[in-house]
Amino acid sequence: MKVYLNGKLVDKSKAKISVFDHGYLYGDGVFEGIRSYNKLIFKLKEHIDRLYESAHSIMINVPLRKEEMEKAIVETVKANKLKDAYIRVILSRGEGDLGLDPRKCRGNQTLVIIADKISLFPNKLYKEGMEIVTVPTVRNLCEAVNPQIKSLNYLNNVLAKIEAINSGHQEGLMLDHLGYVAECTGENIFVVKRGELFTPPQCMGTLRGITRDTVLDISKKLKIPTHEHVLTRHEFYISDESFLTGTAAEIVPVVKVDGRKIGDGKPGKIAKKIMDEFQKLTKEDGVKYQI
Ligand code: PXG
Q: How far, in Å, CA of 249 to CA of 245, rounded?
């Protein structure tokens, strides 16, 4: 495997960074997870835009222009001869000293691009649906560490994931500090009620997911009335269908929340329609590369 490290493609065994890197010491950095399907990188521009927005928000200068970033990502996937890839772009503030002071990193950002494979959940879950549970850890406050920033500081999500796993579930539903539904540990969430689609608005402790945006586009195309609206757990429990969206997870039907069956306890019709449309899109839409 070849890994992109600060402008060079190096062997995985040589892809090493300093223990003084503030990404390692403090989670001081940003990242993106991107997928390619049959030599098409899906929503690459959107992922690059979000990476630059996250970096801007925490005042890290991205050492490449956006066109150069696109090229670096494409070259990394090509170097690994992957038709279908999961691409991780990681930008940290770089090597500094043992203090928090970001100025000590002197603009030495570390940029890593890894192209690999990922399969987050077993196939069975996509057909039969997932059971999820509400977790005690509250989603980060927007005024503290804004969930819109895709930062390397994922402890909030990791804690929630631990709680979900400890209770025998694959995913955990995270609420915001007011008790409204926010998102899962690495996915946005949707519910369907009487043929209409609902998802929490961005300001409710959710990441503006690129798969979420894609689903909103699909629902527009399919003429499914869609609302970005605050949701309580009750609304979840009484919904007809539910599903999760994320680049790594793609679209996963949810059939039980906190022991309550959703609809008839099987993946819903609208979820399936959206999953089909999503699959079609991944086959046609994207930045093409040759291997
Ligand atoms: N919410 C959060 C908190 C995320 O981290 C999403 C929603 C979905 O966003 P996109 O843009 O991918 O549709 C994410 C992204 C993992 C893993 O291993 C998941 C993400 C990132 C990194 C790792 O589960 N999801």
A: 7
